[in-house]
């Protein structure tokens, strides 16, 4: 097997990209890289420090003061922002409501893409996001594009928030947030969310987590013996 096999997983918000990516990494012994967490952590820093996303000079300066690191426990990816564990906070609604705008910024994307590409040069990784198979690793041998019914996605996200003790957000608000993010992700000028021509579509509207893992492994296994 290659020493730097990259499995790229793209798709809409709350389609279970990270769930599949973590399951694949655990099954294959790969490293899981949550690219979305990187953009969320940057968004959190911008919110805390009142960075004007429309001001390129402010954005560029802020990025010089952001240090992101991943650590793993039981194949759960945890991220630190300047040494502070923020894995839970970056999933709350204030970040969710602003992450599309931040992640669409040209300077932010260029910096994050450089960091992501460094991670895949010498390691076997599974990375999920919006532009992994199109911009970050366009030559990745295995690419998946995940989708699901919007109502199902909203319900999954709502249950996730509830499980973390967030009872202030309604299902309707989650649905609207996902619709807004879909529009922002697919229409932004910088690396919009699109399916790579060679990406395998995985619609998991009616699939269990075990079924989607089986589907993905079927397509990955031929590359494990090369």
From TrEMBL:
> Which UniProt key words apply to this protein?
ATP-binding, Cytoplasm, Kinase, Nucleotide-binding, Transferase
Which Gene Ontology MF annotations are present?
ATP binding; CMP kinase activity; dCMP kinase activity
Question: Which residues make up the binding site for ATP?
Answer: 11-19
Q: What are the Cytidylate kinase domain coordinates in residue numbering?
A: 7-211
- One Pfam entry for this protein is Cytidylate_kin
Subcellular location(s) per record:
Cytoplasm
User: What EC class is this?
Assistant: transferase
SUPFAM superfamilies listed in its UniProt record:
P-loop containing nucleoside triphosphate hydrolases
Q: Where does this protein have coiled-coil stretches?
A: none
EC number per UniProt: 2.7.4.25
Q: Which reaction does it catalyse?
A: CMP + ATP = CDP + ADP; dCMP + ATP = dCDP + ADP
- List this protein's GO terms for biological process: nucleobase-containing small molecule interconversion; pyrimidine nucleotide metabolic process
Q: Name one GO cellular component term.
A: cytosol
- Origin: domain of life: Bacteria
Task: Give the principal location in a single coarse category.
Answer: cytoplasm
Note the InterPro entries from the entry: Cytidylate_kin (IPR003136), Cytidylate_kinase_dom (IPR011994), P-loop_NTPase (IPR027417)
The UniProt family comment states: Belongs to the cytidylate kinase family. Type 1 subfamily.
Q: What is this protein called?
A: Cytidylate kinase
According to the entry, what is the taxonomic lineage of the organism? Bacteria, Pseudomonadati, Bacteroidota, Sphingobacteriia, Sphingobacteriales
